[in-house]
């Protein structure tokens, strides 16, 4: 279940992904398979080669890309999510959610 994002933010992410940009979307998330994780960041791009190359620098495997939607993406959560968002200067995405609790 996803929540904590507005329609404008989601629409911008989808447009960026469709246009082949590497785009980040962080939202609250609950999944019993991942206890203790309350947020997820979706990093997507329709340019699969670009997405694969981007992921390699962080040790992400191409097999981890979700291809089951019109918006191919990696899901990041936990420590890896924090490390990558920090490296990409996107930590504000997590901070925004912490400040809305």
How much beta, percentage-wise? 15-25%
Contiguous uncertain segments of 5+ residues? none
The end-to-end distance, rounded to whole angstroms, is: 17 Å
Radius of gyration over all CA atoms, rounded: 13 Å
Largest sheet: 4 strands, antiparallel
What string gives the helices and strands in order? EHEEHEHH
Structural class by helix and strand composition = alpha+beta
Q: Work out the helicity level.
A: 25-40%
Strand order of the largest sheet: 1-2-3-4
Number of domains: 1
Q: What overall geometry do the principal axes of the alpha carbons give?
A: globular
* Contiguous helical run count: 4
The pLDDT mean sits at 89
Q: Find the count of extended strands (DSSP E, 2+ residues).
A: 4
Explain how this protein is built.
The longest helix is centred in the N-terminal third of the chain and has 12 residues, at 7-18. Helix content is 38%, strand content 19%. With 101 residues, the chain is α+β, with helices and mostly antiparallel strands. The protein has one domain. This is YneQ.
Summarize the structure in short.
This protein is an alpha+beta fold and 101 residues long. It contains four helices and four strands, in the order βαββαβαα. A four-stranded antiparallel sheet has the order 1-2-3-4.
Show the helix and strand layout.
Layout: E1 2-3, H1 7-18, E2 23-29, E3 39-44, H2 48-56, E4 73-76, H3 78-87, H4 92-98
Antiparallel strand pairs: 1-2, 2-3, 3-4
């Amino acid at each position: 279940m996803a929540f904590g994002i507005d329609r404008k933010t989601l629409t911008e992410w989808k447009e960026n992904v469709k246009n082949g940009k590497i785009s980040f979307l962080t939202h609250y998330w609950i999944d019993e398979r991942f206890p203790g994780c309350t947020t997820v960041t979706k990093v997507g791009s329709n340019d699969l080669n670009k997405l694969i190359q981007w992921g390699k620098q962080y040790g992400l495997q191409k097999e981890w890309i979700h291809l089951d939607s019109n918006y191919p993406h990696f899901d990041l959560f936990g420590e890896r999510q924090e490390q990558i968002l920090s490296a990409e200067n996107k930590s504000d995405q997590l901070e925004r959610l912490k400040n809305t609790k």
